[in-house]
Design a protein that fits this description.
By secondary structure, the chain is α+β, with helices and mostly antiparallel strands. It is built from three helices and six strands.
Length: 149
């Protein structure tokens, strides 16, 4: 048996670590830009500032994505009981165990692998709304829903 709250907490820690790294990178780039502004002038200065700004924008997009993912995972109701796969369901199939939430990396807890997928992903679309016992084929792999938490 697997613990849904342990899996969700693991993903929340993973996301918070990612958020912290992105925030630190943005702060560092902001500081670099301010230091460069104090010590430089001319075209080289403008080019450097422009590069720093572009890099900040890229990281800000990644930060927003991580914040959105954290919001999705945070909203999962741990006490939710349903006989159909919905957003927030932990689904055990004959091949893998997936959390229906947002696309996140595979994690391993107690020697068991877990995946977090978006309901809009191809596998998520096959699972959403289905019940225990539902079977389907995807990429030459046969799946059967064994359990929904």
């Amino acid at each position: 048996m697997f613990n849904k709250s342990k899996i969700i907490n693991h993903y929340l820690v993973l996301l918070q670590d990612k958020i912290d790294v992105y925030q630190d990178l943005i702060a560092s780039l902001t500081e670099d830009a301010q230091n460069d502004a104090k010590s430089s002038a001319g075209d080289k200065h403008e080019t450097t500032l422009s590069k720093l700004h572009i890099e900040q924008e890229k990281i800000a997009l990644k930060l927003n994505e991580a914040l959105t993912q954290k919001q999705v995972v945070t909203k999962i109701d741990l006490d939710q009981q349903t006989d159909r796969v919905v957003l927030g369901s932990l689904v055990k199939t004959n091949n893998l165990i997936v959390l229906i939430a947002t696309a996140l990396p595979k994690i391993t807890i107690d020697n068991q692998s877990f995946f977090s997928i978006s309901p809009q992903s191809p596998l998520g679309e096959q699972l959403m709304g289905q019940e225990i016992g539902h079977t389907f084929q995807m990429n030459q792999v046969h799946y059967e829903i064994l359990e929904i938490l």
